[in-house]
Amino acid sequence: MDTTTPDQFMQAAIEEARQGLAEGGIPIGSVLVHEGRVIGRGHNRRVQSGSAILHGEMDALENAGRQPASVYQAATLYTTLSPCAMCSGAILLYGIGKVVVGENLTFLGEEELLRSRGVEVSVVQSHDCQALMRDFIAAQPQLWNEDIGR
Question: Among residues 16, 57, 103, 110, which one is catalytic?
Answer without folding.
Answer: 57
